[in-house]
Amino acid sequence: MPEPGRGLLARIERFSMPAGPVRCRGSWLRQQGEMRFAPDRPWLPFEAEEWFLGSGIDFRWRAKVRVAPLLAASVVDTFQGGRGRLTARILGVFPVARSRGETTDNAEALRGLAEAPWRPFVFRAAPPLSWEESAPDRLLATFDEGGIRVAVEFHVDADGRVLGGTAPSRPRLVGKSVVETPWSGSFAEYRTFDGLRVPTLAEVSWHLPEGAFTYWRGRVTEFRVLT
User: Fold this and answer.
1) What is the sign of the dihedral through the CA atoms of 75, 76, 79 and 84?
2) pLDDT (tens place) for every residue of the chain, 227 residues total
3) Cα–Cα distance between 154 and 113 in angstroms, integer?
4) Residue ranges in the chain assigned as alpha helix (H)
5) Are 77 and 86 contacting, i.e. CB atoms less than 8 angstroms apart?
6) What is the distance between the alpha carbons of residues 102 and 105, in angstroms, rounded to a whole number?
């Protein structure tokens, strides 16, 4: 009997790695996009780079966000070694935001898991990741290590594209309070880079009582496998 989730995992692997298994130490991408901090706030343009390790869910996202015509903020968002961290500085010097601790660990771990389509080599049955087919086109991915346990349900089409992922809750900062909120992301426009097919468009949303709030959307402009 096949292992749980192996049917969809095999479908994703065939689509994402058409040239066969890829041996690498990770992947890197460059993005352009925009983000906002509340439904009634303006969209702010950003440019970013992101690095992913070849195994697990560790990542590092570094961005420049234009917060005013002549003012930019440097943002670093990471999950590394079982710890999450978010920092933002105006002009790269003056701190305006900092987040770390157990809540941040879980929030960033969930992000790292949800961005698996940008490192599709992790769609393999290997701890600390486990997989379960929750429906014919749904793959439940769970990361469980070091006291952190997060899960994302991926939507997979008939060809093996991951179209998006959902989580019933993710920590969301509202003022000085943390509110567990349903969360989702979507992927589109797959292209082939260095033997991998990865999405080049993505959006991320909170699902509030009044409706979906899309707060981040971006396009991949460069992508490389790190060997």
Assistant:
1) negative
2) 455 667 999 999 999 987 776 678 899 999 999 999 899 999 999 999 999 987 889 999 999 999 888 889 999 999 999 999 999 988 665 656 788 899 999 999 999 999 999 999 898 766 789 999 999 999 999 999 989 999 999 999 999 999 999 999 999 988 888 899 999 999 999 999 998 999 999 999 999 999 999 999 999 999 999 98
3) 10
4) 6-16, 102-114
5) yes
6) 5
For each of the domains in the chain, give its residue range(s) and CATH number, in order of start.
Answer: 6-36+43-226 (2.50.20)
Q: How many CB atoms lie within 10 A of CB 3?
A: 11
pTM (global) more than 0.85: yes
CA distance 185 to 203: 5
Which letter, b or e, does each residue of 74-83 get, where b requires 16 or more Cβ atoms within 10 Å of its Cβ? bbebbbbeeb
For residues 167 and 170, what is the distance between their CA atoms, to the nearest angstrom?
7
Long-range contacts of 83-86 (CB under 8 A, 24+ apart): 84/108, 84/109
Alpha-carbon span 102 to 2, nearest angstrom? 35
Number of C-beta neighbours around residue 91 at 10 A: 9
The residues, ordered by sequence, that sit 6+ positions from 163 with a Cβ below 8 Å of its Cβ are 155, 156, 157, 186, 187, 188
Q: State the amino acid at position 24 in one-letter form.
A: C
Tell me how long the chain is.
227
> Which tokens hold the place of 23?
């041996």
Can you say whether the dihedral through the CA atoms of 225, 114, 207, 48 is positive or negative? negative
Structural tokens at position 77: 């968002």
